Amino acid sequence: MKFNYSNKLSKVILIGILIAALIVTSGCTNKSTSSDNGSSPSETSGVSDADKAAESGALTLKDGFDREVTIPENVERVVCSGAGCLRYLVYLQAQDDVVGVDSLEKEESAFEGRPYALANPQLKDYPLIGEFRGKDDPEKIIAISPQVILKTGTSGQSAATNGADADTLQNKTGIPVVMFPYGSLKNEEQKAEMYNSLRIMGQVVGKQERAEEVINYINATMQDLENRTADIPESERKTAYIGGVSMAGAHGIISTEPAYPPFLWVNANNVAAGMGADHADIAKEALVDWDPEYIFIDIGTLQVGNEGAIGELKNDTSLSGLSAVKNKKVYGVIPYNYYSTNYESVLANAYFVGKVLYPDRFEDIDPEAKADEIYTFFLGKPVFSELNGQYDNLGFKSIPL
Length: 401
Fold this sequence. Notes:
The chain is of the alpha/beta class. It has 2 domains: 58-225, Rossmann fold (3-Layer(aba) Sandwich), CATH 3.40.50; 233-398, Rossmann fold (3-Layer(aba) Sandwich). Helices cover 44% and strands 12% of the residues. A 4-stranded parallel β-sheet has the order 10-8-12-13. The protein has a 3-stranded parallel β-sheet with strand order 3-6-7, sandwiched between helices. It is elongated and about 65 Å long. It comes from Methanosarcina vacuolata Z-761. Residues 31-51 are annotated as: Disordered. Residues 77-361 form the Fe/B12 periplasmic-binding domain. InterPro entries: ABC_Transporter_SBP, ABC_transptr_periplasmic_BD.
C-alpha cells in the first residue's frame, strides 16, 4: 500500500491549529465572563479593599469620627493639629515622629503651663503647619511631607462637622487625616472617647502597647485615689472650693469647676457642685455664703496680673471673712487647662488635694515626688520643679495672704 505523506502531514497541522484555536477561545470566554458579570478581579477572588491595602503596604482604619482612612503601614512622619493632639503623641512616646507644629507650640511665654512642652523644648524649633486650634495651612503641611495628619476634633462641633473638616483637609493636602475627639476623664462616656482616641493614635504610629500602658496607668491611679477615701462618711468629708481656674486663658477667684476632678477622686465636697458640669463663673456672694473649709487656687491665675485670685483674697474685703482665709487653709494647685487638659497635672493635683484634706489617708505620699513620678511616666521627665517655677513656686503649698 502506498501512503500519501503530504496528505497526512496536512491533517496533523490542521488538527494542531484546531486545538490551539480552542485554547484561545476558552481563555477569551473566561475573561469575558469576568467582565460581563460586573465584578472586578479582586471581587471574584474574594479580596477586600482592606486586604488590598495590606498587600500594598498600607493599613485601613476607622478614626474617632467613623471615617475610613488608609495610611502607610509604617508611619514615621506625622503632624499634629488641634488642641491637645501633640500632648497625646508625647504620652505615646512618639514625639520623634513629629515633623511640624502649630503656632501655639512655637510661642515663647513667661508662663508655660504645658508640661509636655517643658519636657520637649525642641518642638518649638519645628516647621510651622498653621495656626493653633486646628487652623491648618495646607500648603505648609504639604511642604514638609508628613505621611499622616493627626487631628483632634473641635469641641462643640458635631461628629459630622468634624468629619467634614477632616475630609476637606485631606482633599486639600492629599495626605491621610486621622481625626478623633480629645475626650476627658469627667465621666465614663468621655473617658471611653479619650481611650479610643489614644488607641487610634497608637495604631497609626505603631504604639499600641504604649497606648494600653497609658490607659492602664490612668485607671490604676484613679482607682488608688478612690480607694484611699471611698469609706470616709459623708459627714466627715471636707468642703472645698477651687478658684482661679484657667479656661481659654487665666481668670480670677470666681472662675471654678463644679466637677473639678481632683475633688471627685478624693471624695471632697465641692461647694460649687450645683453650678453645672464644666466651667462656671460664680458670684462672690455665693462663695461667701458657701464659706468652704478649704480653698484651692489654680496658680495659672497669676497671668491675670495683680496676683489674680490670690490678690483678690488678699485685698477684697468681702472675702476677708472666709473661714479658709482666716484659718490659713488656702493652697495652690498646678494649672491644667492649657491648650486642652494636661491630664498628668490633673492626677498630680489630686494627690496634693488628698494630702491636704485627708493627711492620714495620704501619709505615704510626698505630693511633689508623686507629681514627678506621674510626669515621668507620661512625659519621660520629672518636670514639676520647672513647671512650678513658672508660677512663683506657689503650687503644692499653703499660700500666704
